[in-house]
Q: What sequence folds into this?
């Protein structure tokens, strides 16, 4: 549905430009005819046609410029789609090849119980990787669908942050103390699955792109304005200032696809931005006050304050 909307404006613009060109051509033909019959009777009409023709030329030039901008955006989007396909192909092939090798080894060779357990563990990790990838692609396709209002509920945001952090730590096999908390007890009105998608993606990115010794900080504060602010900080390389507005685009990943060391599809932050906007909030990238790394800040409307301090 969104692809149809994105094509509608360029098509309308192209049709309008063609009509302007036809009118302009007819007008100049008439102007030439009347000019050949130059006399005082048609002098005013000549000036009128000249003025109208000038306006049409300016409109045509503006249309060409706008159409060029749309064309450049389309080319960039197609390039990101190509990068996405490269990334997804690699993400699918790697765990499949790994599981195939493990199964071939188990079926063709006698292995010890300890080795068999290791192979099973590797295959479960590969299956989790595939499951995460499939869910990411499916979630990206679903975020454009309007949610059912009745599905919203009061959700304890501090609990969601802790659950998402535990899931991410388990996935990357890092100790729980990798993620430090400074959270207040807050509640927002939303679907819990949406909040989990938002903060699981953000915390996953923070751990994935953190430094050699990952350190992630999760802050949750409720402001007097009725907003809750969640900041997720990492100690990685950070996001360049010029690219911060682009990282939330669909299929957008920084750098060259074949040179990346971290797996991904370029859909995580797109999902985050779409869901945050749907909840009436904002998401942005900020600088750390000190040291390297990125700060992802999410602002959401608060429902109420739960009468306890999160420990």
A:
């Amino acid at each position: 549905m969104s692809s149809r909307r994105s094509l509608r404006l360029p098509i309308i613009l192209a049709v309008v430009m063609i009509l302007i060109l036809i009118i302009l051509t007819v007008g100049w033909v008439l102007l030439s005819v009347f000019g050949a019959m130059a006399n005082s009777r048609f002098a005013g009409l000549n000036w009128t046609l000249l003025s109208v023709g000038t306006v049409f030329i300016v409109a045509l030039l503006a249309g060409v410029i706008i159409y060029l901008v749309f064309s450049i955006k389309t080319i960039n989007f197609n390039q990101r789609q190509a990068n996405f396909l490269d990334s997804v192909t690699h993400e699918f092939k790697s765990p499949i090849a790994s599981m195939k090798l493990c199964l071939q080894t188990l079926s063709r060779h006698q292995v010890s119980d300890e080795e068999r357990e290791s192979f099973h563990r590797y295959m479960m990790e590969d299956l989790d990787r595939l499951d995460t990838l499939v869910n990411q692609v499916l979630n990206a396709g679903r975020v454009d669908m309007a949610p059912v209002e009745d599905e919203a509920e009061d959700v304890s945001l501090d609990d969601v942050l802790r659950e998402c952090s535990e899931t991410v730590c388990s996935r990357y096999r890092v100790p729980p103390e990798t993620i430090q908390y400074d959270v207040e007890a807050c509640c927002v009105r939303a679907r819990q699955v949406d909040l989990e998608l938002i903060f699981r993606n953000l915390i996953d990115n923070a751990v994935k792109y953190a430094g050699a010794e990952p350190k992630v900080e999760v802050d949750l504060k409720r402001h007097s304005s009725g907003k809750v602010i969640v900041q997720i900080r990492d100690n990685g390389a950070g996001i360049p200032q010029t690219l911060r507005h682009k990282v939330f685009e669909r299929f957008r990943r920084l750098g060259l696809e074949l040179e990346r060391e971290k797996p991904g599809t370029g859909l995580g932050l797109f999902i985050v931005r779409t869901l945050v906007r749907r909840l009436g909030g904002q998401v942005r990238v900020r600088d750390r006050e000190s040291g390297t790394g990125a700060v992802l800040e999410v602002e959401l409307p608060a429902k109420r304050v739960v009468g306890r301090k999160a420990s």
Summary: The first helix runs from residue 2 to 36. The two ends are 45 Å apart (CA to CA). The first strand starts at residue 153 and ends at 156. Residues 256-260, 305-311 have pLDDT under 50 and may be disordered.
